Amino acid sequence: MDEHPLRRYHEYIEYPAQSMLERAQQFGQDLQRRRSVREYRRAPVPRQLIEHCIAAAASAPSGAHRQPWHFVAVSNAEIKAKIRAAAEAEERRFYNERAPKAWLDALAPLKTDEHKPFLDDAAWLIAVFAQRVSTQADGSQAKNYYVPESVGIATGFLLAALHSAGLATLTHTPSPMTFLRDLLGRPTTERAYMLVVAGYPDHACEVPDLQRKPLHEVADFLE
For residue 29, which phi and psi values (nearest 5 degrees)? Predict the structure, then answer.
């Protein structure tokens, strides 16, 4: 028996051409407002909202439909404090020992350093893990394919969903991130991919005054 039978695609919705254009413009304009936020106010965000955003992320396409991701959403203050302590320890080594001058120069406009108060202040930290293997129905393990690409797409979906819901976000990638797997009790077959910070921005929050590349610099059209 075919484990993955085909069926008609009933979910697709075809919009009028003008409506399609308006939807694309609105979506793009909305995402243009998204900025990486490092200052958060300590205000709770309902778990249900985060659940919906993670569900949206988990709808992403993946290699061989293996869905090689796992999300651990943390609002517990004690666990967030442990994550911050471990992340800042790695960041101190990065800024003071590991990072070449060119990398530090590239980071300078962002005003970042080893201090990460947002890991305590933001309502939620969502650790994204990449799975090298998947457990099958019979308990055996099978190799996953295109894992970084698949998890990257899912993380993009997650950021878009959180932004659309009205939350500020930040992608945080201290290196190495083995401590996340250990602190959150994930198996050795998983690798911490990214830490997504989500919550309400501080009322006095500031972000770097940066500009995104215009369309003509990032795309070509061959018609």
Answer: -65, -35
The verdict on pTM exceeding 0.70 is yes
> Containing domain of residue 112, as a range?
46-202
- pLDDT per residue as tens digits for the range 15-44: 999 999 999 999 999 999 999 999 999 999
Could you tell me how far CA 184 lies from the centroid of its own chain? 17
Question: If you average pLDDT over every residue of the chain, what do you get?
Answer: 94
Identify the residue with better confidence: 173 or 135: 173
Domain assignment of residue 82, yes or no? yes
* Predicted pLDDT of residue 97: 87
In a domain, 19, yes or no: no
Pairing status of strand 141-143 against strand 168-172: unpaired
Distance CA 27, CA 163 (A): 11
Q: Report which of 45, 35, 23 is spatially closest to residue 125, judged by C-alpha positions.
A: 45
The answer to the question of residue 195 being in a domain is yes
Q: How many domains does the chain have?
A: 1
| CATH code of the domain containing 192 | 3.40.109.10
Distance CA 64, CA 142 (A): 11
Query: What is 114-179 written as a DSSP string?
Result: S--THHHHSSEEEEEEEESEEE-TTS-EEE-BSHHHHHHHHHHHHHHHHHHHT-EEEEE--SS-HH
Domain membership of residue 35 (yes or no) is no
